[in-house]
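Worked example (supplementary).
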Amino acid sequence: MPRVFKSVDISKEEKEIRKDYFDRHTPWVICEDTAKRGEKFKVKVKLGRDYVHPADPDHYIDYIQLWNRETLLADLRITPMVLGNNSGQVEVDFYIVPQNSMNLSAMALCTKHGLWQSDSKEVLIRD
Amino acid sequence: MPRVFKSVDISKEEKEIRKDYFDRHTPWVICEDTAKRGEKFKVKVKLGRDYVHPADPDHYIDYIQLWNRETLLADLRITPMVLGNNSGQVEVDFYIVPQNSMNLSAMALCTKHGLWQSDSKEVLIRD
Amino acid sequence: MPRVFKSVDISKEEKEIRKDYFDRHTPWVICEDTAKRGEKFKVKVKLGRDYVHPADPDHYIDYIQLWNRETLLADLRITPMVLGNNSGQVEVDFYIVPQNSMNLSAMALCTKHGLWQSDSKEVLIRD
Amino acid sequence: MPRVFKSVDISKEEKEIRKDYFDRHTPWVICEDTAKRGEKFKVKVKLGRDYVHPADPDHYIDYIQLWNRETLLADLRITPMVLGNNSGQVEVDFYIVPQNSMNLSAMALCTKHGLWQSDSKEVLIRD
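After joint prediction of all chains, the assembly is encoded as:
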């Protein structure tokens, strides 16, 4: 049964003690707070703010998913040992054309440490 | 934030009341209880025992995943409106070559109702 | 530019000389010659008849796709070093619910030797 | 048997006559001509320069792949009717950490018109 590790479920204390472990596994969604309806909107998903994830044959980031609430928007499979995986710091920019306000989140799968979920990011729509 | 609906979390009562809803969304893992080490072992994953899931342009089963504990074994993307999706009863047989005992589970993504997780299935290894 | 290696393009002579190389890379589609319209129909895709493909960290089968003419039916991503990949002999059974006659083929991606295409398999529909 | 439509195989005349058809199906790889060894390098893949692809339930862009010669770097599955698919102009930025010179190309799958391959893009490495 794959567990889902969520940033919100981890205590501040625990985050401090195992800072590097949490940091390099947790994806984050980076974008503006508001988007213009029907226009391309850039959403960056990145792994690790200060620490880099290993990229070993049996320990790497396998995929990154972008979700809007319960809806999967995009699913990126990364071939191990190449691409941003080289550095362990996976990064990708998606371009959305939103029609309504969104609650975005990202999921990352580490082949050794399971599924990790980002904080959610509210995006309001303006006309 | 994608939620994960798990068969174990749903009360018996609720399962009875909304029997068709739970049945057609929940994947199940079907295989023998023991496997011979290093030999091909068939694992069937199926959606719905008694009820069929819809297959509409905006409501279909998007993917089926097979997991061994925290490890993703296989990820099957299904093009909507074709394949087993026609009938809403997705079915696939994977062939594993296990080295150790396994705790298998499956995940299914419905484009309207989120992620669904099967009961887990223990498989013991024999030599 | 990924090339696509097709069984039909390779001369009989060359196939004989490098028999193991071609055999272990070429997927094959195994199913009945006719299917009943609207009923579940099993399609097996297998890699290698007589030889097994390696399963090394930098050399493995990454995905298997099932196509009906120009239409992708299903796309199976396999986590390296696990599943049928252990033995190098990937195998999967898809279940299709066909409405019309089909011309099936499979594609396999080897991380070292590119894309490989099976012979095509005609399936006629009966009522 | 999925055919692969390549920009280089299509005559200049044909491209002129069916300009919109070719334009909206052909992905293009956009990046600098040189990259610094071991540093993150941005590679944009975009569909359509002047024309937008439809985004209908049975006619949409299903996936975008980024290749370095015979090696798949990344495989992006896009849920139909959402994301950049809304506008038909799929766009994504990958971040590579190259160690050697590359020959990049992209593939796009249209659910109605098959596989389309971009022109290839040489990237030289500098220290």
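Two points are worth noting when inspecting this output. Chain B has one domain: 4-126. Chain B has a mean pLDDT of 87.
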